[in-house]
Structure formats: structure tokens, C-alpha cells
Amino acid sequence: MAKEPKTLDDLFHDTLKDIYFAEKKILATLPKMAKAAQSEELKAAFEKHRTETEGQIERLEKVFAVIEKKPQGKTCAAIVGITEEGAEIMEEYKGSPALDAGLLAAAQAVEHYEISRYGTLIAWAEELGLDDAVSLLEETLEEEEATDEALTEIAKTAINQQAEAA
Question: What is the pTM of this model?
Fold first, then answer.
């Protein structure tokens, strides 16, 4: 018997599982990054994003409800790789002036991945007529973009100069 061809609906669901896994992985990683950060401003940014991530996970669970699927994650190799890089930076740069610059770069890699995924999910949800999902995903995308901008500002105003000053 021939296998059914996969549809945009299937791809949306698979990608939703991917970002759900990613958000949960990020939620587990942010406290470690906050603890490792030397700058109080960077620590605060990581802690703020941890709270936001909890809300983002709740919104993703609502999107699963919109498509009448059980919330579940699917291992996201990209986020596993990005968080492993962050862990390496924490280990290799511990106690060094460049640690916070490395943590910030790792956090922005995560943000850029999330921005990419949410943008794609929004486009697909629009195509599929999932208006309730669109608004939930857009809210999260706005938070991710704001976090990315805040991290860029922290990098430009303090962290990069501190890393160079050693």
C-alpha cells in the first residue's frame, strides 16, 4: 500500500513539535546561562527570557489545541547543537572577560533560530487558515525579536567592550 503524501498540515505539526522541544530545552538551559553570566544586566536578561519562555510554551500548547493534537516535542538537532555550543563556551571561557560575550552570542543564535521557526509557522498557519494559531505565534515572535534586540543592545553597550578590555 502506497504511503500517503505529506501535506503542509503535516509539516506544520512536525515543525510545531520541533519548536516545542526547542522551547523546553531553552527553558532548562537559561538558568545555567544566568548562573554563568558575570554581568548583572546579562543575568537579568536571561532570567526575564526564562519567564517569557514559560509563556511561550503555554502558547504553543494552545496552538496544539487549535490543531487538535497532543502537545509533544520532537528532538530538534539544531537547538541541541546550539545549546551544546553554549555549554562549551561556559566551560572554556569560565572566569574570563570574554565569557559574557560568548554567552550572549550563543543566546542570540538561539533567538535567531526561534525567529526563523516562528516566522515560518506563522506563514504556514496563515496558509492553513489557522487564525487563532497565527495570533499566538505572532505574540511569541514579537517577544523573540524584542529579546534579540535587547541582547544586541547589551552586547554593544557593555559586554563586547568588557571582553576586549582584558
Answer: 0.92
Phi then psi for 25, rounded to 5 degrees?
Answer: -65, -45
* Grid coordinates given for 117: 521557526
Cα 88 versus chain centre, distance: 18
pLDDT tens by residue, 35-91: 999 989 999 999 999 999 999 999 999 999 999 999 999 999 999 999 999 999 999
Cα separation, 162 vs 157, in Å, equals: 10
Report the greatest alpha carbon distance in the chain. Answer: 66
pLDDT one-digit tens code per residue, 106-160: 999 999 999 999 999 999 999 999 999 999 999 999 999 999 999 999 988 888 7
DSSP 157: I
Please give the full DSSP string across 58-124, using - where no structure is assigned: HHHHHHHHHTT--------HHHHHHHHHHHHHHHHTTTSTTHHHHHHHHHHHHHHHHHHHHHHHHHH
What lies within 8 Å, CB to CB, of 122 at 6+ separation is: 134, 137, 138, 141
**Centroid of chain to Cα 87:** 16
Residue type for position 80:
V
